[in-house]
Amino acid sequence: MSVPPVIPISAFEITEDDANDIPEAEHCIGIYVGTTGTLRLQDKAGNECTFTGVPAGVVIWGRWKRIMAASGASTLVAYYDAIVKKPA
User: Fold this and answer.
1) In this predicted structure, what is the pLDDT of residue 84?
2) Average confidence (pLDDT) per 10 residues, the chain, 88 residues
3) Dihedral of the CA atoms 18, 24, 30, 35 (nearest 10)?
4) Is 52 contained in some domain?
5) How far is CA 38 from the centre of its chain?
6) For the chain, how many structural domains are there in total?
7) 3 state DSSP class of 26
8) CB-based contact 67:39 (threshold 8 Å)
9) Which of 14, 29, 27 is nearest to 69 (CA)?
10) Domain that holds residue 23
11) In this structure, is residue 5 part of a structural domain?
C-alpha cells in the first residue's frame, strides 16, 4: 500500500483524453486505477510515463496533467489536494 503525499480532499471519475488535461490538473495528486491495465500519464512538465500491468486498486501518486487515450486501464479516479467539483 502506498502512502499519499498529501491527504486527498476531493475525488471523481475521469476519462482518458490525449487533447485535454485532467479537470483542475493543478490540484491533481494521484490517479486511482479501478481495472487492471496499462496507464499512460503526462506530468506537469509534459513528460509521458507509461505504467504497465497496473493492478486494480492501485493509486499512482504524482502531479499528473493528462491521461493519454488508449491506456488500457479503466475506471480511473483523480485525487485532488483541494476542493474540486466534477465538471458537468
Assistant:
1) 83
2) 74 92 92 92 93 93 90 88 83
3) -50
4) yes
5) 12
6) 1
7) helix
8) yes
9) 14
10) 10-80
11) no
3-state SS assignment for residue 67 = strand
Q: Which pLDDT score, from 0 to 100, does residue 2 have?
A: 64
Q: What angle do CA 48, 50, 56 make, to 5 degrees?
A: 135
Residue 49 maps to a domain = yes
For the stretch 55-75, pLDDT in tens is: 999 999 999 999 998 777 888
What is the reported pTM? 0.86
Phi, psi (degrees; rounded to nearest 5) at 10: -130, 160
> Number of C-alpha atoms within 13 angstroms, CB side, residue 47?
5
Q: What is the pLDDT of residue 73?
A: 83
Closest CA to 31 of 61, 54, 57, 53: 61
Residue indicated by cell numbers 467539483:
85
